[in-house]
Design goal:
Layout lengths: L14 E3 L17 E8 L2 H6 L4 E6 L10 H13 L4 E5 L10 H9 L5 E4 L2 H6 L1 H10 L3 E2 L3 E7 L2 E8 L9 H5 L8 E5 L5 H6 L4 E4 L12 H9 L7 E4 L8 E4 L18 E8 L23 H22 L8
Parallel strand pairs: 2-13, 3-4, 4-5, 5-6, 8-9, 9-10, 10-12
Antiparallel strand pairs: 1-2, 3-13, 7-8, 11-12
Helix pairs in contact: 3-5
Bound molecules: fe (ii) ion (FE2).
Length: about 325
């Protein structure tokens, strides 16, 4: 793999200018597409008493490895993660765009991660071929949490990781994921769709990491709230929500992600490509952060009809893939 061009190590919350990137295509009106933010937050209060030392988690989402997002941007994101020397890397889905054409590139990128990585799938992974994406993650040494949880040991501490499969395409099963979760050990959740977070909070998972929204790509004049919140019906658009304190509600972080599947335009500070760090075991308020917990938008529940339509969409795409691969397959006709 070639080195990403001109990436300097970032102090948390500083922009990384991704200069001289071969192949980078500037989109009309783009202001911030060439910058990657590394944002740092303290973890939930719950972890302060449960961990003997801080655990640094790097969160990466919506890489969408493919034609729209230049490879040097992807490499810079991986380099930014490694530069922060996290104990764990957590990935919250959408590794591909609309095809399986870039799985080799995805594999080599993920192989560059220096810390143990854990992942959940997103809607684009199910649309493009979940089985193949799963196999690629496995080959890259990434552990996939498909409605499952696992416990990792870091030094003398143990941390439970709870992963939900993608809710947008109807694959999330929180009951299955939470079965056997130990209340005496600290936990952190992963879900591509942020609206699943309250289910995990109620089971004692105090922090959930998500993606999917890309912060609307255009985050000026509250356009991202209009598009992602009011038009698309999401309660959570970008950043930190809920409560990291000891309240009944847990906390949630929605990443703006790294890549894009259709167009790479990103305008506005909140829409910048981002790597997010969480220092678990560090008390919130100990250092300045980019923003504090925000109030969720009203949102709109997904109707049963719409959900069925989304599930049908996955089946239709799988059928199209099968028939392209083997036109004589009787199950594809
Ligand atoms: Fe995405």
């Amino acid at each position: 793999m070639t080195e990403p061009a001109s990436v300097t190590l970032a102090q948390p919350d500083e922009g990384l200018p991704l200069l001289n990137m071969p192949g980078y295509r500037r989109f009309p009106g783009e202001l911030h597409g060439r910058h990657l933010r590394v944002r740092r937050f303290a973890g939930p209060l719950d972890h302060v008493t449960r961990l003997s030392r801080p655990i640094r988690v790097a969160h990466l989402s919506d890489q969408h490895v493919g034609r729209v997002t230049p490879l040097p941007v992807q490499q810079a994101a991986i380099a930014a993660v490694n530069a922060q020397k996290p104990d764990l890397v957590l990935l919250t889905g959408d590794y591909v765009c609309h095809s399986l054409d870039y799985l080799d590139q995805l594999e080599s990128l993920l192989c560059e991660l220096k810390a143990p990585a854990f992942a959940v799938l997103g809607n684009h992974d199910h649309w493009s071929g979940a089985w193949e994406v799963r196999r690629t993650l496995h080959r890259a040494g990434v552990t996939l949490l498909d409605n499952a949880h696992t416990t990792v040991r870091i030094g003398s501490d143990r941390l439970q990781l709870v992963g939900l499969d993608d809710a947008y395409t109807g694959h999330a099963d929180s009951r299955k994921a939470l079965r056997g979760l130990r209340p005496d050990l600290p936990a952190i959740g992963l879900s591509h769709i942020a609206e699943e977070a309250p289910r995990l909070w109620r089971a004692g998972v105090p922090l959930v990491l998500s993606g999917h929204t890309h912060s609307g790509h255009i985050a000026v004049a509250r356009l991202h709230h209009l598009l992602i919140g009011h038009a698309a019906g999401h309660r959570y658009v970008h950043g930190l929500y809920g409560d990291r304190g000891a309240g009944e509600e847990g906390a949630l972080y929605v990443s703006a992600g790294i890549g894009a599947s259709v167009f790479g335009l990103r305008v506005g500070e909140r829409a910048r490509r981002e790597v997010t760090l969480f220092d678990l075991g560090v008390q919130p308020g100990l250092y300045p952060e980019h923003h504090t917990e925000q109030i969720a938008l009203p949102g709109r529940p997904v109707s049963l009809r719409k959900q069925k339509k989304r599930e049908e969409q996955v089946r239709r795409k799988a059928w199209t893939r099968r028939s392209r691969r083997n036109p004589t397959d009787p199950t594809s006709s």
